[in-house]
Design brief:
Elements lengths: L33 E4 L8 E5 L5 E5 L7 E6 L5 E8 L7 E5 L4 E3 L10 E9 L4 E5 L3 E2 L4
Parallel strand pairs: 1-3, 2-4, 3-5, 4-6, 7-9
Antiparallel strand pairs: 5-8, 8-9, 8-10
Length: 142
């Protein structure tokens, strides 16, 4: 309503709408930061990725001495995001292991070649972690 001034606004830690949110033809963006993970060489090539901390992650396998195991900490409730997997000049297998539920691949679980870059999409439904992969992008230097 025009002309209404809000006073004494209190922080509400559990706000609820009484109906659908009308953005008046505008778009609301929910930005998230990106976390980058690199296995520490000689540290059993294991990384822990907290899927509840951010929605988008990058795993750079360059310093790994062998196969990389990604221990995925799943959040309390459903969410989704991506993990970009970047290989260097040596092929390294990558496995994803959620802290709860099962990792279920939609389609074929990818294998990796040297210089592959893949985007792994993930969705956690609070019971299972569903994963799917793009085709590999070959980033071999020219």
């Amino acid at each position: 309503m025009p002309g209404i001034t809000l006073v004494n606004i209190v922080n509400d830690t559990t706000p609820q709408l009484g109906a659908d949110l009308d953005a008046n033809g505008n778009t609301i963006h929910f930005g998230t930061a990106e976390n980058v993970y690199t296995p520490a060489a000689g540290n059993s090539d294991t990384v822990t990725i907290d899927l509840g901390a951010e929605n988008h992650h990058t795993l750079t396998c360059g310093s790994a001495t062998g196969a990389v195991t990604c221990n995925l900490t799943v959040p309390a409730g459903p969410t989704a995001g991506t993990i970009i997997v970047v290989q260097d000049d040596a092929e390294k297998a990558v496995t994803f292991s959620p802290s709860s539920g099962d990792a279920r691949w939609l389609g074929t679980e990818p294998t990796y070649a040297a210089y592959d870059i893949r985007v792994i999409s993930w969705r956690w439904d609070a019971t299972n972690l569903y994963l799917s992969s793009t085709d590999a992008y070959d980033s071999t230097p020219a």
